[in-house]
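User: Could you go from structure to sequence for me? I need the amino acid at each position, not a summary. Structure tokens:
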């Protein structure tokens, strides 16, 4: 840990979909112990109960992000408590970093080294993978509810969950739904309807004033036709109807005066990692439209006349070469061992030894009391002492189970590197690439780990000239 870190904000989360999740109290206890051991003062504690890590709609989480800067670090029990979403995790880490705050795990030692970047990114991938497995199990039960047309917790303005678990109409809200369709058919803009509804007290499911999005979604929601739909399961007449087919159809035909083109732009996964070999400056991502509205995306040097390099070609070439390396089991295993060894935490091993000592102490104490009872010796307070020792034993076993479950086996890690479905191209680039130096003839890529000769792994990728331009 950086010596500059002197204050910490703690964050804990419990997901109701997990069957073996550490409790909020256990998470905070481990975080407080870490702070005590490292000499860090706790300035704030945040906890979200029964909320999945795959969403960022967590009140305490958002408050913690908003208060970034009140501490030197944000401390979590494990990285998956911060987020299980592969996109939210780096986004909010960046938000913290802008305020000079680092994210730290109490149970996972992520070294401040190139290997640490790989370790952290792959932990995010593993967390996302486990979250998807949990989603499959949860979804199976929810599909059974959908067949019965139960709400499954999905809130729709104009309806509420009845005693039988199915949708029933809320008359006051249904009146606003009908009014929205009537006014839209009359040509009124969604923004105008939303402003009026907000002034009259209409709010979203999260308590916010009605806005454009709420009205737009309302006007395009087929549930108001009585069509129940959840996860691809659809039943006509599966819920009460509020709008008739004619009204719904006429509302869909009303078009706004200005239609914007739906455009999709790429993400520059190598931002701040592509360097110009000629002048040594960073080559930022550049995107836009050229002649005939042709879209282009490049990494280009703004300081000299080095030929720009296409984003899709550069990123594709590097990902392809890295995946070739990871496709070899021996190389994947070697990388896995480097990362796992770099992630070995002396503090975690100390916690393991302490838990084992606590377990031995409790079991020895219980055995001594049992021996005394068998000899007819019953000391005052024996019953209370037995309860204390049993609680100590159970707590030590839970701590050991947690540590054992989170121990990463290099073979499993290697298989994840070779076949992990959540190891996206973007994750590969962010985890493995340290720098890509571009010149006129080739691209020299330096990776975040060393060869067996303790030299940085480098990839030399030749640039291919097409008829019109350099790649």
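Assistant: Here is the amino acid at each position, in order:
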């Amino acid at each position: 840990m950086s010596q500059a870190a002197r204050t910490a904000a703690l964050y804990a989360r419990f997901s109701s979909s997990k069957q073996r999740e550490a409790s909020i109290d256990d998470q905070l206890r481990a975080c407080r112990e870490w702070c005590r051991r490292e000499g860090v003062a706790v300035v704030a504690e945040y906890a979200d109960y029964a909320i999945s890590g795959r969403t960022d709609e967590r009140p305490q989480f958002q408050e913690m992000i908003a208060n970034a800067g009140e501490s030197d670090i944000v401390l979590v029990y494990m990285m998956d408590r911060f987020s299980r979403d592969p996109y939210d995790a780096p986004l909010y880490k960046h938000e913290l970093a802008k305020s000079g705050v680092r994210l730290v795990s109490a149970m996972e030692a992520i070294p401040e080294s190139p290997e640490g970047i790989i370790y952290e990114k792959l932990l995010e991938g593993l967390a996302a993978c486990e979250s998807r497995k949990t989603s499959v199990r949860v979804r199976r039960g929810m599909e059974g509810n959908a067949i019965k047309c139960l709400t499954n917790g999905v809130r729709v303005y104009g309806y509420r969950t009845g005693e039988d678990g199915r949708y029933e109409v809320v008359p006051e809200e249904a009146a606003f739904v009908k009014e929205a369709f009537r006014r839209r058919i009359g040509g009124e803009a969604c923004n105008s309807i939303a402003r009026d509804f907000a002034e009259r007290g209409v709010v979203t499911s999260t308590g916010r004033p009605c806005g454009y999005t709420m009205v737009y979604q309302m006007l395009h929601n087929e549930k108001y036709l009585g069509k129940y739909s959840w996860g691809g399961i659809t039943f006509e007449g599966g819920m009460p109807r509020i709008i008739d087919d004619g009204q719904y159809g006429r509302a869909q035909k009303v078009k706004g005066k200005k239609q914007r083109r739906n455009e999709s732009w790429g993400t520059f996964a190598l931002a701040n990692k592509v360097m110009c070999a000629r002048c040594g400056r960073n080559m930022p991502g550049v995107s836009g439209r050229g002649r005939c509205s042709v879209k282009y995306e490049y990494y280009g040097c703004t300081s000299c006349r080095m030929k720009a390099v296409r984003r899709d070609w550069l990123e594709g070439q590097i990902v392809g070469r890295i995946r070739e390396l990871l496709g070899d089991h021996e190389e994947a295993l070697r990388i896995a061992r480097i990362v796992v060894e770099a992630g070995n935490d002396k503090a975690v091993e100390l916690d393991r030894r302490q838990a084992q000592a606590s377990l031995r102490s409790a079991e020895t104490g219980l055995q001594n009391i049992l021996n005394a009872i068998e000899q007819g010796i019953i000391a005052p307070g024996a019953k209370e002492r037995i309860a204390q020792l049993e609680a100590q034993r159970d707590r030590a076993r839970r701590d050991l189970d947690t540590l054992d479950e989170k121990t990463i086996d290099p073979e499993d890690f290697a298989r994840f590197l070779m076949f992990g479905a959540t190891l996206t191209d973007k994750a590969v680039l962010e985890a493995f690439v340290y720098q890509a130096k571009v010149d006129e003839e080739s691209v020299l890529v330096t990776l975040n780990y060393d060869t067996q000769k303790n030299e940085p792994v480098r990839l030399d990728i030749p640039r291919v000239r097409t008829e019109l331009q350099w790649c």
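One structural detail worth keeping in mind: The chain has four domains: 7-107, 148-253, 274-339+413-462, 344-405.
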